[in-house]
Design a protein that fits this description.
Elements (H helix, E strand, L loop, with lengths): L5 E7 L6 H4 L2 H8 L3 E7 L12 E2 L9 E2 L1 H14 L5 E11 L2 H8 L3 E6 L4 E2 L1 H6 L3 E4 L9 H12 L9 H5 L18 E2 L2 E2 L9 H19 L10
Parallel strand pairs: 1-2, 1-6, 4-7, 5-6, 5-8
Antiparallel strand pairs: 3-4, 9-10
Helix pairs in contact: 4-6
C-alpha cells in the first residue's frame, strides 16, 4: 500500500491568490502526481457575524486593526477535526524564526502542515501563544500579509517530498541544500560575445569537473555568503 500524500492547508482571507502558484511548476506536478494535497481556505468561513469580521481595534489604542482570535481557533480546530493527523500549525510572521533550507527539511518530514497567513497590523497574541505550533519569517522586511510567505514555504517544502521533482539529483546540488551556494552553469554556445565556457566543463573528465564544481561552490559561498561557511574554508 502506498503512503498517503502529504497535506498542506492554508488559511487566509485571500485564498484566491493561491490559485496560480498551486497550478504552476513543482506544486502543480507534485499535486498531480499524488505527492501532496494543498487546500487554500477562506478564514471568513469560520466567522459568525453577518459581516464576516476577522479584525477589530486593538486594546490600548494604536494604528491599524488586529485579527481576532475566534476565527483562527475555529478554523484550525475544524480542520483538525475533519482530517487526521492534526497537523503542525505554522504562523507566518516577521517575529518567527528565519526560514532556512534546514527548516524546510524539518517541515517536509511532517505529514501535514496548516499555514496561517495573517493580515492587518497583527494577530491577537492568544493565537500565537495557544494555537500556533511554530512561527516562521521569510526575511527582515515588511509585507502586507502572510500569503507570499506561505507560498514560499509551501514550494520549498513540497519540492523536498519524494517524487515531487523529476530528477532527485538536481535537488542534491542546489544552493543551500548542503549549506553552500550552487556552482556556475553553462550551456551552448561555447563562445558568446567573447565570453567562453571554462575548458574543464568541455573536457569530458568527470573527476576534474566534479572537483571544479566543488571548488566553485566554496569560492562563490566565501565571496557572497561567508556566513554560510562556518568553519569551512574556500
Amino acid at each position: 500500500m502506498s503512503a498517503a500524500p502529504a497535506r498542506i492547508d492554508i488559511l487566509s482571507i485571500f485564498p484566491e491568490v493561491f490559485g496560480a502558484p498551486l497550478n504552476t511548476g513543482v506544486l502543480r506536478r507534485a499535486r498531480e502526481a499524488g505527492v501532496v494535497t494543498v487546500h487554500a481556505h477562506d478564514l471568513r468561513d469560520w466567522t459568525t457575524d453577518k459581516h464576516h469580521s476577522v479584525d477589530d481595534a486593538p486594546y490600548g489604542g494604536g494604528a491599524g486593526m488586529v485579527m481576532r482570535p475566534e476565527p483562527w481557533f475555529a478554523a484550525v480546530e475544524s480542520l483538525r477535526a475533519d482530517v487526521a493527523p492534526p497537523g503542525r500549525a505554522v504562523l507566518l510572521t516577521p517575529q518567527g524564526r528565519p526560514f532556512t533550507q534546514a527548516i524546510a527539511r524539518e517541515l517536509a518530514a511532517e505529514p501535514r502542515l496548516i499555514l496561517m497567513a495573517a493580515r492587518y497590523e497583527g494577530i491577537d497574541e492568544r493565537v500565537r501563544e495557544h494555537l500556533a505550533d511554530d512561527e516562521i519569517s521569510i526575511g527582515d522586511y515588511v509585507l502586507s500579509g502572510g500569503e507570499i510567505p506561505a507560498m514560499v514555504l509551501a514550494e520549498a517544502v513540497v519540492r523536498l517530498l519524494p517524487g515531487a521533482l523529476g530528477s532527485p539529483e538536481s535537488l542534491a546540488e542546489e544552493s543551500h541544500q548542503d549549506g553552500l551556494l550552487e556552482y556556475p552553469h553553462y550551456t551552448r554556445p561555447p563562445d558568446f560575445r567573447g565570453w567562453t565556457v571554462p575548458d574543464v566543463l568541455r573536457s569530458g573528465d568527470h573527476a576534474r569537473i566534479e572537483a571544479w564544481r566543488r571548488q566553485q561552490r566554496l569560492d562563490r559561498t566565501a565571496r557572497r555568503r561567508p556566513d554560510l561557511l562556518g568553519g569551512r574554508g574556500p
